Amino acid sequence: MNDRFLRACRRQPVDRTPIWIMRQAGRYLPEYRELRSRVEFLDLCRTPELAAEVTLQPLRRFPLDAAILFSDILLPLDAFGISMTFTPGPRIAEPIRSRAQVDALQARPAGEAVPFVADAVRLLRRELNGRTPLIGFCGAPFTLAAYLVQGEGKEGFGAVKRMMFHEPATLEVLLDKLAAAMVDYLRLQIQGGVQAVQIFDSWAGILGATDYARFALPYVRAIVNGVRESGVPVIYFVNGAPHLIEAAASAGADVLGVCWRMPIDHVAARVGPGVALQGNLDPHALFADAAVVRERATDVLRRMAGRPGHIMNLGHGILPETPIASVEVLIETVQCAN
Amino acid sequence: MNDRFLRACRRQPVDRTPIWIMRQAGRYLPEYRELRSRVEFLDLCRTPELAAEVTLQPLRRFPLDAAILFSDILLPLDAFGISMTFTPGPRIAEPIRSRAQVDALQARPAGEAVPFVADAVRLLRRELNGRTPLIGFCGAPFTLAAYLVQGEGKEGFGAVKRMMFHEPATLEVLLDKLAAAMVDYLRLQIQGGVQAVQIFDSWAGILGATDYARFALPYVRAIVNGVRESGVPVIYFVNGAPHLIEAAASAGADVLGVCWRMPIDHVAARVGPGVALQGNLDPHALFADAAVVRERATDVLRRMAGRPGHIMNLGHGILPETPIASVEVLIETVQCAN
After folding, report:
1. Is the peptide bond before B280 cis (omega within 30 degrees of 0)?
2. A contacts of B153 (beta carbons < 8 Å)
3. Residues of B numbered 296-325 whose beta carbons fall under 8 angstroms of chain A's beta carbons: which are they?
4. Are A35 and A50 in contact (CB under 8 A)?
5. How confident is the model at residue B284 (pLDDT cuts 50, 70, 90)?
6. At residue A68, does pLDDT exceed 80?
7. Which residue is closest to A212 within chain B, CA to CA?
8. Which residues of B touch A260 (CB under 8 A)?
9. CB proximity B67 to A under 8 Å
10. Which has the closest alpha carbon to A70: A129, A123, A143, A16?
11. For residue A154, what pLDDT is reported?
12. Is B289 a catalytic residue?
């Protein structure tokens, strides 16, 4: 089995830097767009055979070092009976704004609410047949709350910050419930067979340090602790949070995933050697000429050269219009660099 | 005259920390909403008497230490013949995407394109009668380009980053033209009588350090240098850029304005004593109870205590739904702290 991804998560020596790409199964692939033209997004996620098919699409094209389950961070909110649509961004029918709504939230077990996720994982493990490790994932509680309270993706996510300042105790109850549900959800994926998990904290960066320490970090820690006994490596990805790097590294995850904003060696210097790092090419760099893609990718590798525990990735999800040729150049650069 | 704002810009001793609030003239004020219910946003900006009236509204309510001209960073793009609407966010009729479009851009002098701005400034200086200093402003070239290329405000501003990687030379020509036009525009305001200027770089934070050094910083420096001989203090505000703080401080502005993300004393430690600092209460903190508003504001002041050159402000524009009572608590806290 290709285990360089899992070895890098554990900061063990590898033959070369492993690479996978956030949203590697997605709209930049024509075969994905073809399938999506026939099937709604939520149906793709909820049909194990289709979720598995989409997960495998990028692996058929590219020699990636990990697969990541195709799904969305909001899917497990099904456990709370929260109804949503994707058009294409998520829209939550009834945003959670009041203490009464938060108090009323009760999670069914993930195994009942989203059994299709475990089924997709099992299918994928069979298909992958040990060739490539499979990553599962969930959203971090603050990021999930940002969507739940706002009701949609919106720059700045004002609604959750308003709740945070106006009714901090309400937000804390919500975050507690989300953290517990995510532990349950990740355990379901791990029982199904995922070999690593990533916690996506896409919006923690809108918090200052004091508020991050109270409203984001403890709930990420709760998830990390909740899956620790499984032994699978945990990746904690924070976006837009160069001011929170040291705190984020203290969440207890094996790997800290970072966005493109800070040079990754600066991140390494700030967090020390105790955590592996994942990232951090700017996703927009893939719109540059091949020579620039190669140069930028090489720069990231060079900055991490000699540091045990680096997983090459973009600093955020790959963009829908990204040229396939750039993805090929990126992967070749990583393959040939060591 | 109340000159503690101007003294703080120059890092001179002050009797107490000065305070003004980004977007202090705006939708959180009922008197502004009343006027806006009768007059379109662009008409407000383009009618000197109305722009002056709106500028003065917050000063009638609150003992603020500076006024800031009511306008929008996109207004001076009139000089390029760029047509836009506000609904309420800006929308540019024909986004600038190609080299041909960039090459075709030719700026008329600001004095011809937006004479109403100079008129509003003159009116305001007469009305203010030396009681309160008046701030003028413009957008930073990268931030203006972000809107021009995207055509609207949009999380992540993908279009300008795509141009940056795909056609860097085109973006550089655009940035050059924008910087020159902004120098001309600020000089017009300074001739009219503004006593300080602020350069708003709301979106520079989407750049990594290498790209910021090439596509943002040099054009801000060009503006700072272009208005230096006027002797008015220059404030450079960067949002969401804790990874760029040192570079931003090197732009040559007298004051660095920062968002709420980093504790302001950490910013101070990183940039050294050679630049005044402005900020940085989280605008959402004004949704908290009075005690929390007071505590948060006091915390910012305490972090800057004893450092020459601190201007109290929010870390971003005040939000439309902000309770007036919170603004009163904030201002009282600053007035009574020293």
Report:
1. yes
2. 155
3. 319, 321
4. yes
5. very high
6. yes
7. B261
8. 208
9. no
10. A123
11. 86
12. no
Q: Tokens 């490539």 identify what position?
A: A132
Known catalytic residue at A23:
yes
CB pair distance less than 8 Å for A260 and B208 = yes
Whole-number pLDDT of residue B87: 86
Per-residue confidence (pLDDT) for residue B120, from 0 to 100: 98
Dist. CA A25–CA A58, nearest whole Å: 6
> In the structure, what pLDDT confidence band is assigned to residue B11 with cuts at 50, 70 and 90?
very high
Least Cα distance to A260 among B160, B216, B212 occurs for B212
Is the pLDDT at A338 greater than 70? The verdict is no
Confidence of residue B1 (pLDDT cuts 50, 70, 90): confident
Q: A14 to each of A136, A197, A240, A266, B280, how far by Cα in Å?
A: 22, 20, 29, 22, 44
**CB proximity B236 to A under 8 Å:** no
Q: Do B292 and A165 touch (CB under 8 A)?
A: yes
- B134 CA: distance to closest CA in chain A (Å): 29
What is the per-residue pLDDT for B338?
A: 61
pTM, two decimals, is: 0.96
What is the CATH code for B4-279+308-313?
A: 3.20.20.210
Torsion of CA B39, B43, B49, B50, to 10 degrees: 40
Q: Active site includes B126? A: no
Q: Which residues of A touch B262 (CB under 8 A)?
A: 208-209, 243
Contact check, Cβ <8 Å, A162/B240: no
* Chain B interface test: which of A163, A284, A329 (most B C-beta within 10 Å): A284
- pLDDT, one tens digit per residue, over B246-269 is 999 999 999 999 999 999 999 999
Kindly give the pairing relationship between strand B84-86 and strand B90-92. Answer: antiparallel
Rounded distance, CA A9 to CA A236, Å? 11
CB contact under 8 A, B261 and A164: no
Fold held by A4-276: TIM Barrel (3.20.20)
What is the identity of the amino acid at B183?
Answer: V
Contacts of B281 in chain A (CB under 8 A): none
- Please tell me the distance from the alpha carbon of residue B84 to that of residue B95, in angstroms, as a whole number: 10
What tokens does A26 get?
């997605």
Instruction: Calculate mean pLDDT across residues A185-209.
Output: 97
Q: Is A134 helix (H, G, I), strand (E, B) or coil?
A: strand
What's the rounded Cα separation, in Å, for the pair A253 and A125? 23
Query: Annotated catalytic residue: which of A4, A36, A97, A187?
Result: A36
